Amino acid sequence: MAISKRDEGKKVNSDINVTPMVDVMLVLLIIFMVVTPMVNNKVNVDLPPAASAIVMENANKEDSVVVAVTRDGKIFLGGDQVQVDDMGPKISSLLENKTEKEVYLRGDNRANYGRVMDAIDGVRAAGVSQLGMLTEKSEQ
């Protein structure tokens, strides 16, 4: 009587197949190489053009609040001349019932820079959350 013996142990291959692991690692490497420059928060900022059509359209509405500084240093709120000290309360009363606290500033090209900054300080004293600076579109 012969005993039948199984030789299944000789058929087992205990070598690790590295090909699928290398494939996965290469795919991950490529993904990280593509995504890494996108995560970087430096530079690559597209700024809106000066005096964009949306800002000009909003500034031309009847209920918009516009502050203007002339070349001789006078400050106007709408069509009325105001002093820098009076700007805060007047702008606050104009923006009282509005949801968007936005004011537009027009500064003459030859206006004194310090006077324009005084107007900006007056607007900020009113608690304005957004200040739109209006400029003329360059003809290039």
From TrEMBL:
Top-rank taxon: Bacteria
Topology within the bilayer: Single-pass membrane protein; Single-pass type II membrane protein
Subcellular locations according to the entry: Cell membrane
UniProt keyword annotations, A-Z: Cell membrane, Membrane, Protein transport, Transmembrane, Transmembrane helix, Transport
Keyword rRNA-binding: no
GO MF annotations in UniProt: transmembrane transporter activity
PANTHER family on file: EXBD MEMBRANE COMPONENT OF PMF-DRIVEN MACROMOLECULE IMPORT SYSTEM, TOL-PAL SYSTEM PROTEIN TOLR
Family indicated by similarity: Belongs to the ExbD/TolR family.
Protein name according to UniProt: Biopolymer transport protein ExbD/TolR
